[in-house]
Amino acid sequence: MKALYIASTGMSAQERNVEVISNNIANMRTTGYKRQRAEFQDLLYQQYTRAGAQTSDQGTMIPAGLEIGSGVRTVATPRIMSQGSVNPTEKELDVAIRGEGFFMIGLPDGRTAYTRDGSFERDGDGTLVNSSGYALQPGINIPANAKSVAISPTGMVEAFVGNDVNPTQLGQLQIARFVNKAGLESIGDNLFSETGASGNAQIGVPGADGNGDLLQTYLEMANVNSVTEIADLIAAQRAYEMNARVISGADEMMKSTSQLR
């Protein structure tokens, strides 16, 4: 019976939906995480009677055809790139982007990755790195005897070096924007990589040309709303249960048919 296979596609789609929701909930406390949403499309239809088919020599036509669908499939899990809440941390190397843009991170293989996670540290050489030890791009080096590191909203990094009474400029932070930021590919470790769908990175200075500005001693939290996720989870569970009931109903119909004498 075709209903069995149609309902099975519904159960499979809702199972994938629950997986997406569970990943959002698991990353509620992940810095800079962007929630995902499952999107679905209906499958091919089998047409038994085509709408508009002629029914008589006088030109009368069927107003609505007879077609049965084949179910549903998951086609995409786009990320919702809205701004997450910005929380204070009191740590001078924590930086949040308020608005558009991504920090640029140099990967060991030479590629550039992008992130909204601005929790930076100094490595043994004084270079600013992320939590995985990958260097921020363009590179910023903070001398060992530097004090009171300051990062301006426009990305200028300054510090008092040694006994200097005036701050020394250590570098300029830059951020990247994309035409379609939802087209970035997630590669784990709070990082994204550029794809053909995202377009090329447009690199600029924070606070200029539509780029977001920076907030020192702040971090951007995940944009996951727990109430919304729980509501979506309940809806997905109910949809899964209804598809399971369709399978049970179709099974009962097949059972009744097989018992006919």
UniProtKB/TrEMBL annotation:
Q: Which GO terms describe its biological process?
A: bacterial-type flagellum-dependent swarming motility
- Flagellar basal body rod protein N-terminal domain: residues covered: 4-34
Assembly with partners or alone? The basal body constitutes a major portion of the flagellar organelle and consists of four rings (L,P,S, and M) mounted on a central rod. The rod consists of about 26 subunits of FlgG in the distal portion, and FlgB, FlgC and FlgF are thought to build up the proximal portion of the rod with about 6 subunits each.
Keywords on this record? Bacterial flagellum, Cell projection, Cilium, Flagellum
Organismal lineage: Bacteria, Pseudomonadati, Pseudomonadota, Alphaproteobacteria, Hyphomicrobiales
Cellular component aspect of the GO annotation: bacterial-type flagellum basal body, distal rod
Q: Does the keyword Acetylation apply?
A: no
Give the top-rank taxon of the lineage listed in the UniProt record for this protein.
Bacteria
Cellular location(s): Bacterial flagellum basal body
Residues covered by the Flagellar hook protein FlgE/F/G-like D1 domain: 96-159
- Write the protein's name: Flagellar basal-body rod protein FlgG
Major location (coarse): other
Instruction: Tell me which residues make up the Flagellar basal-body/hook protein C-terminal domain.
Output: 216-260
